[in-house]
């Protein structure tokens, strides 16, 4: 069947081809969205789509083993397979957080471990699509010299890795001193040009948008809708892992907010094509130190004001002026959504408590877990609800956060789950006494 997609302006309905270098509507300034030919996609039944996607899961046939490209018809149907740059992204574990859930009052809690990916975050899901499209654009003669992004860490890692695999130059703008060592070394190792700017993420974002206006520079931030096409598969994959059943709630950390609208887009597509018949509710979780969406939700959506985000352990969502605000609000309204926030103490304690039940949660997952706990206490989330928390990054990127927590070195954090090593001599009797006394 002949499937296709194009950019569309939500406000005017104006459309543009996918291989055009464009991010906003020339008339309205609104961010564009990718629109698929749903009539063509309806030519295959919902049952047939589900069967096809289930058959492809884990396939060794290139590139269908990828969690993204196994759903190619729903993501980027016009892309030639030899342009695809895939590092086997997607198909990440849906962790049954039974012990942690019982502790906070939820019987059916799951954590979608998007950080179990090639570069350690959910950003791989969108970057495989964007870099693949750019690779085809270059092959078709488009004068693109490099792909550029502003980042708080994870986007830069994904961009650098996929560009390295595609042999395309990558340029990364990072806020100086505001990303972890692991997040900094990833783009350096993959050969990106890394520019550490003496500003925050919002300052980097302002600069990168100007840079993207230069000839030959292509923008990779989530204001580029290609990224969202890959990220929307998170929702599709969750439903597939539940044998095509929809959870009651999804809790997702929010910074620049592209992931929120991407999540909604995946569910919208499944609804349109008859794969599901209901929507989950969505909660966007923000750090209290970087909470412009939360503040707007308290005052009314039309009263959004950018803020200067303050220091937070959840550094990847330290964003005060999210470019995808309008998209996120549309999604929240459609999905009966709510916004909650978490203090530094709340996010740190939630991450540590979850770790003690078998996870290794990044601080952003801690924000989502803390928000969930508040929703449970308020009665908004019920004990019997099936809840999925989106874990956006691998905890191994934030080992310094973990070490400082267990050393009791994070300001204003009690470290209730602190677990420090016991120093002792190499003496068997002392080791025996120490171990056995711990059983008392």
Give your account of this protein's structure.
With 440 residues, the protein is an alpha/beta fold. The chain has a domain at 94-119 and 228-406: Rossmann fold (3-Layer(aba) Sandwich), CATH 3.40.50.1100. Helix content is 39%, strand content 14%. The strands form 3 sheets. The protein has a 6-stranded mixed sheet, sandwiched between helices. Helix 11 links the parallel strand 10 (249-253) and strand 11 (281-287). The longest helix has 17 residues, at 123-139.
Q: Could you give a short description of this structure?
A:
The chain has 440 residues and is an alpha/beta fold. It has 17 helices and 13 strands. It has a domain at 94-119 and 228-406: Rossmann fold, CATH 3.40.50.1100.
Output the strand order for the largest sheet.
4-5-13-10-11-12
Question: Helix and strand string, N-terminal first?
Answer: EEEHHHEHEHEHEHEHEHHEHEHHEHHEHH
Helical fraction equals 25-40%
Indicate the CATH class of the domain at 94-119 and 228-406. Answer: Alpha Beta
Number of strands: 13
CATH fold-level name of the domain at 94-119 and 228-406: Rossmann fold
Mean pLDDT: 96
Give the helix tally.
17
Classification by helices and strands: alpha/beta
Q: Please tell me the CATH architecture of the domain at 94-119 and 228-406 by its name.
A: 3-Layer(aba) Sandwich
Radius of gyration, in Å, reads 22 Å
């Amino acid at each position: 069947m002949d499937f296709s997609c194009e950019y569309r302006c939500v406000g005017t309905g104006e459309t543009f081809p996918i291989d055009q270098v464009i991010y906003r509507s020339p008339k309205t300034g609104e961010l564009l969205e990718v629109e698929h030919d749903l009539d063509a996609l309806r030519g295959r039944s919902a049952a047939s789509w589900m069967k096809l996607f289930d058959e492809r899961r884990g396939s060794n046939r290139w590139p269908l083993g990828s969690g993204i490209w196994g759903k190619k018809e729903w993501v980027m149907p016009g892309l030639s397979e030899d342009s695809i740059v895939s590092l086997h992204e997607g198909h990440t574990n849906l962790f049954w957080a039974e012990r942690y859930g019982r502790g906070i009052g939820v019987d059916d809690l799951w954590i979608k471990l998007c950080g179990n990916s090639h570069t350690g975050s959910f950003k791989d899901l969108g970057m495989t699509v964007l870099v693949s499209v750019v690779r085809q654009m270059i092959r078709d003669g488009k004068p693109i010299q490099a792909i550029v992004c502003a980042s708080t860490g994870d986007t830069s890692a994904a961009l650098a890795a996929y560009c390295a695999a595609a042999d395309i130059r990558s340029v990364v703008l990072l806020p100086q001193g505001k990303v972890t060592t692991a997040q900094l070394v990833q783009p350096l190792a993959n050969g990106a040009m890394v520019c550490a700017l003496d500003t925050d993420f919002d300052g980097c974002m302002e600069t990168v948008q100007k840079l993207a206006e230069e000839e030959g520079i292509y923008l990779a931030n989530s204001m580029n809708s290609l990224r969202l096409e890959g990220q929307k598969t998170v929702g599709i994959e969750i439903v597939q892992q539940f044998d095509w059943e929809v959870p009651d709630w999804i809790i997702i950390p929010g910074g620049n907010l592209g992931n929120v609208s991407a999540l909604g887009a995946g569910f919208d597509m499944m609804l349109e094509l008859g794969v599901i018949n209901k929507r989950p509710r969505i909660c966007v979780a923000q750090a209290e130190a970087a909470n412009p969406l939360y503040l707007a939700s308290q005052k009314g959506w039309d009263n959004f004001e950018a803020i200067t985000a303050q220091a937070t352990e959840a550094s990847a969502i330290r964003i005060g002026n999210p470019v995808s605000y309008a998209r996120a609000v549309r999604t929240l309204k459609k999905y009966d959504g709510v916004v909650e926030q978490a203090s530094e103490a709340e996010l740190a304690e939630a991450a540590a408590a979850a770790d003690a039940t078998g996870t290794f949660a990044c601080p952003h997952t801690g924000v989502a877990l803390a928000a969930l706990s508040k929703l449970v206490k308020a009665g908004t989330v019920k004990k019997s609800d099936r809840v999925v928390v989106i874990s956006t990054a691998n905890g191994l990127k934030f080992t310094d956060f973990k070490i400082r927590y267990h050393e009791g070195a994070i300001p204003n954090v009690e470290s209730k789950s602190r677990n420090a090593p016991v120093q002792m001599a190499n003496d068997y009797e002392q080791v025996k006494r120490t171990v056995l006394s711990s059983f008392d």
